[in-house]
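#structure-requests
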Amino acid sequence: IETQAMMIEAFDEVAGDTQAVEECKVWLLKQKQTQDWKTTKATADAVYALLRRGENWLASDALVAVELAGTKLEPKNVERGTGFYQQTFAGNEIRPEMGKVKVTKSDEGVSWGGLHWEYLEDINKVTAHEATPLKLEKKLFKRVLTGAGPVLEAVVGPVSIGDELICRVVVRTDRDMEYVHLRDYRGSGTEPVNVLSAYKSQDGLFYYESTRDTATHFFIDYLRKGTYVFEYPVRVQLAGEYPMGYASIECMYAPEFNSHSESILLRAE
């Protein structure tokens, strides 16, 4: 962060490149969206670079105009300087046409926001959500012992009581993020093999894995841009047909960055 702030000052004082200064400021601010500035010195340098170099982003008090179903929202309790505000609608106020959202920005600068819709749905009808920088994919495999050793076979039909299943969750992200929470639900007829919570690492990624009653949780301090694979075993205990649930992920520092996989139906005989 200190290096980026210094580069902004260099482009401003030495090169006099206004466009480069503005682009560097945008990168610095976007970095703060999903990460934090680790020290007070870094924070002070970043704030100084954003406020004292290039265009004055605080000169305009114009707010981003938001329309839902053709009706313009009237902001309340607006935060000074940043223009942050939020508005909540109760269930009886929500209409299907409110899914049409129009956002208008009248001045220069950077703005972002999020739209969250919470509702109840049958878990078997949950489909994967891929319209975010975070993408999840959940698959089930059965561990089979062969003469050459254990192998993983994709679950394509019914399984048997006592089978060991491997839950695999693939995470893809297009940017660095901090404080990420990954949660993978388990089927009601399965039990986890690993019951002890512990810190783990793989492929340069460090995280804390916690096994709870209904799901396995992964707490990640720092998630670099790339693709990661998480696996953990469960054992089939009860016969029947039940959903294995879905996996969900969220950046706790920026909740608008979230996603979930589809739900998988399991049949045990």
